[in-house]
Design a protein that fits this description.
This protein is of the alpha+beta class. Helix content is 43%, strand content 17%. It has eleven helices and eight strands. Strands 2-1-3-4-5-6-8-7 form an eight-stranded mixed sheet, sandwiched between helices. A hairpin with a 2-residue loop joins strand 3 and strand 4. Helix 3 packs across helix 4. The chain is elongated. 29% of the residues are buried.
Length: 277
């Protein structure tokens, strides 16, 4: 763990040169999430019942208890591995994260979020030129020359990165505006060396401040279903899980429009949290 000076963090819009770094950061931050989701689905009562039925049928065909038990589980895991990334790449969205990242850098690239720690410390964040990456990849060239349609660009939303002296150490995804006054956080990742330093809180609160100034009155956050860490994190920031507490009819109607992502057999893959600004 590295001691992080939060007042030296610049939160800016992602640029084209940041795409591969952000992808690597997401891959690192989400390592194991997919496996936990698969385990969560496999241990649901309905799923266990279906696997038991198929195992009983195979038991009469393969004459091996171990194979009859392993084959249905193996096939289901392969199926989930193939189909799950499209629904969990960007939580709360059907687009995979690589499409989201690749089409969301085209905006006001010099736009930044306010850092409240700068006002407290009186310091100005130091921004350095990003370090030159050795060995340009053809993949980068393909990303920079790909055709992005206006429709795709409009639906891409925004990616904000936390830049500390030229290094990207975190990012937060804000989904495209689908309802007036409503904002959605569908991915939050911090580098493994900078966790438990307040970076995630800084990203969320700074984005909330920007959305508040833009006229938004509510923020939704989608987190992986089995992630207890993410649940505790958002609760500490004042978020409530969707469906908790007594609300008036108007709020109930509005919240029905925000639903959790669902996967195999309709099992929820995400939990939805909200906060009124």
């Amino acid at each position: 763990m590295v001691r992080l000076e939060l007042d030296q963090v610049v939160m800016r819009r992602m640029k084209e040169d940041d795409i591969e770094v952000v992808k690597a950061l997401i891959k690192e931050g989400c390592e194991g999430t997919e496996n936990r989701l698969i385990l969560h689905i496999l241990t649901r009562p309905l799923c266990l019942f279906i696997l038991a039925v198929f195992s009983s049928i195979l038991r009469c065909l393969v004459h091996s208890f171990i194979l009859a038990l392993a084959i249905p589980v193996f096939l289901l895991i392969v199926f989930l591995k193939i189909t799950m990334p499209r629904s969990t790449g960007v939580l709360g969205s059907s687009r995979p994260y690589w499409d989201y990242v690749g089409s969301s850098y085209r905006g006001t690239q010099d736009e930044t979020l306010q850092n409240p720690y700068c006002r407290i410390s009186g310091k100005t964040p130091v921004t350095r030129k990003p370090r030159r990456r050795i060995g340009p990849k053809e993949k980068d060239k393909e990303t920079s020359t790909e055709k992005v349609t206006p429709e795709r660009e409009q639906s891409a939303g925004q990616v904000w990165v936390a830049d500390c002296e030229g290094d990207i150490i975190g990012c937060i995804f804000r989904d495209s505006e689908k309802r007036a006054g409503i904002s959605r956080i569908c991915r939050l990742v911090t580098g493994s060396w900078y966790r438990r330093e307040g970076l995630g809180r800084l990203l969320v609160q700074s984005l909330e401040q920007r959305e508040r100034e833009s006229g938004a009155h509510r923020v939704y956050a989608h987190v992986p279903y089995p992630s207890k860490v993410a649940e505790v994190f958002f609760r500490k920031l004042g978020y409530q899980q969707l469906g908790e507490g007594a609300d008036d009819e108007e709020d109930d109607e509005e919240r029905k429009l925000e639903t959790a992502e669902r996967g195999f057999l309709g099992h929820p893959l995400t939990k939805v949290f909200y906060k009124d600004l």
